[in-house]
Design brief:
It is a single chain. The chain is of the alpha+beta class. The protein is about 30% helix and about 40% strand. Strand 9 and strand 10 form a beta hairpin. It has a 4-stranded antiparallel sheet, with no helix packed on it.
Length: about 250
């Protein structure tokens, strides 16, 4: 009788232990699926495999202010057993990394987008073309005066048909009181002989229809006020002539 009680208690204990182990399995699966955090002083990491054995790891690092730091492009040529590093100073924080062959020469370009902030949230692009294990730095063009009209940051970049597309909202002015016009400016960047060219895909205008209508209405009023002033002058001249005659 005592043996039966012992056997029952032992079996119940195994069942309870098995249930408790099953309860812990989902928690273990969740922790395994969690994305590993980037350890300090590193802030960003993205690996881009352009072809088998050719991988570019883009990282950024720095301590203290998040508005400045450095970046590195770690090129692993595992087939040729060659490993090279390209570094540079970073303005702001990395928000995106893009890979393309914009000039169709077989050499990949790595484009790093960062976001900085002074009076507006502006974007910068650090561009490199890799030929075997050598990196050529490409000068990314700044916005012209007409392209900067109404610009207050919040850029969106993406690759489309081998071209880099940039778009951002347009404001009615460039100061802190600016209001969005609801329109966007869209630019297309191409690459030829390691030089960028820019084509504007959208109409370059920050004026709204309401502003255009007000401007058109203002012109007749101006002409009307001028004609009234002329009539007044003519009336005053006639009165003076009558007085002289009298």
């Amino acid at each position: 009788m005592n043996f039966r009680k012992f056997l029952f208690i032992a079996t119940a204990g195994l069942v309870i232990t098995g249930c408790s182990n099953n309860d812990k399995k989902p928690a273990a699966a969740i922790s395994a699926a969690a994305k590993p955090a980037v350890m300090q002083p590193f802030r960003f990491h993205k690996a881009i495999e352009v072809s088998p054995g050719q991988t570019y790891d883009v990282v950024s690092w720095g301590r203290g202010s998040t508005q400045t730091g450095s970046f590195a492009i770690l090129h692993s040529d595992s087939a040729g057993m060659k490993y090279t590093t390209t570094t540079g100073d970073l303005d702001g924080a990395i928000t995106g990394v893009y890979n393309a062959d914009m000039d169709l020469d077989g050499n990949p370009e790595i484009l790093i987008q960062s976001k900085g902030k002074d009076t507006v949230s502006y974007a910068k692009i650090y561009a490199f073309e890799f030929n075997n294990n050598e990196a050529d730095k490409l000068d990314f063009p700044k916005l012209t005066n007409s392209q900067r009209k109404g610009y207050r940051g919040n850029d969106n970049f993406y690759i489309k048909e081998g071209k880099l597309i940039r778009e951002f909202p347009i404001y009615d002015s460039n100061d802190s009181t600016a209001k969005s016009t609801g329109a966007k400016r869209q630019l297309e960047y191409s690459l030829r002989r390691n030089s960028f060219t820019v084509t504007q895909l959208s109409k370059d205008s920050t004026s709204t229809k309401a502003n255009d209508a007000v401007a058109k209405q203002a012109e007749p009023e101006k002409k009307q006020s001028v004609s009234k002033s002329k009539k007044r002058k003519q009336t005053e001249t006639k009165k003076k002539r009558r007085r002289r005659r009298g």
